[in-house]
Amino acid sequence: MLDIKLIREHPEAVRKNLEKRNDKEKLSWLHEVIDADKEWRKLNLEVERLRHSRNKISEEINQAKKQGKDISEIVQRAKVIPELIKEKEELAVKLKEKVDYILMRLPNILHEKVPIGKGPEDNKVIKRWGKPKKFLYELKTHTELAEDLGMADFEQGASVAGRGFNYLYRELALLDLALQRYGIDFLFKNKFTPVIPPMLLNRSTLSGAVDLSAFDEVIYKIEQEDLYLIGTAEHSLVSFNKGKVLKESDIPIRICAVTPCFRKEIGAHGVDTKGLFRMHQFNKVEQVVYTKPKDSFKMLEEMQGITERFFKSLKIPFRVVELCSGDLGGKFAKQYDIEAWFPRQNAYKEVTSAGNCTDYQARRLNITYIGSEGKGYVHILNNTMVATSRAMVAILENFQQKDGSVKIPRVLHKYMNGIKELRANINRNKVTIKKKIAAKRKKR
Fold first, then answer.
1. Are residues 378 and 277 in the same domain?
2. Is 0.85 topped by the overall pTM?
């Protein structure tokens, strides 16, 4: 949420920010909020003048009574004022609601060094790590691998809950849990405090963490309750200090969590529709930091570095992309994505996002700090440590072997009870093959 003072004092800077974001629709909103704010302030002044007049008339009535004068004319004047005050206050409330509505939807101010562009094609690749492996044999998709290994049932997940929900079991379930625990341990070693947060939030809280326009399209609501399922642990973690005044000496605050994430929208059709890459329910380790404004962009680099080291330890090739102005989420001032290499798809695809929201979410959630220089809003940053489903796809694709087995990254062995590779259960695999043959015959 932008500061209304910024719009009052520097409307041109806000306008240029919207142009950089290629957000033409919200340029008209800017004019609307400026006009509504001016009228709101004008009404407030009028209400104050009316209250002052009411007080003066009250004194005038008291004086007239003491002097035994006729007060009927003065009382008649006094009766009109409360009605005028009520009328103008009601109008002021409506204008304030309009101002707040627009403020909640205008995007954050971009960092001065964000690349200018219209969309994903203008994002800037700033570094690469690892060399994509060349395979001398035909690669399977991650869904084929998971099914052939007898460790996933995508059709049954779709049958009981719908497309985008899956059953994972055996070593693949262990791999998901291993990535969760390794991610938390990795962050713990980097001074993050683990948190088990609520996975349901009320609307007023969630609207402080996420764009309100996403509610209907992306977020699941609990019927007949003022509760919504979180789309990411970020929603709960940035709300951890909602309404609080923090001490400067306690900042920065580093917290992390692993939670299921629930999202209605799962993205494009095609190779990702079935499987693990895009799902309505998945697990994610998230990191959030509250910091002082002067330290926030330095903290963004630190958080990004932690996640890069994590993926390096998994030996998964990746590149780092800085998002351009036209592709940047509304709450972010600056954002990086890590895109892992997926050899079966012959492409880099997003696996993590790290962004600095500056004071945008803090204003919505009223999170401030007090120190030697007075009181101010904290800056809030968030970063995906690992979305386990996407990391598993990267592992299945990058470490699959010619015989259909999959090597597990060394750092995860201790979290896998010593299991070093995903390998099919021979007896179970025979049953799976028979089922596939029977299904093909049935189709004929």
1. yes
2. yes
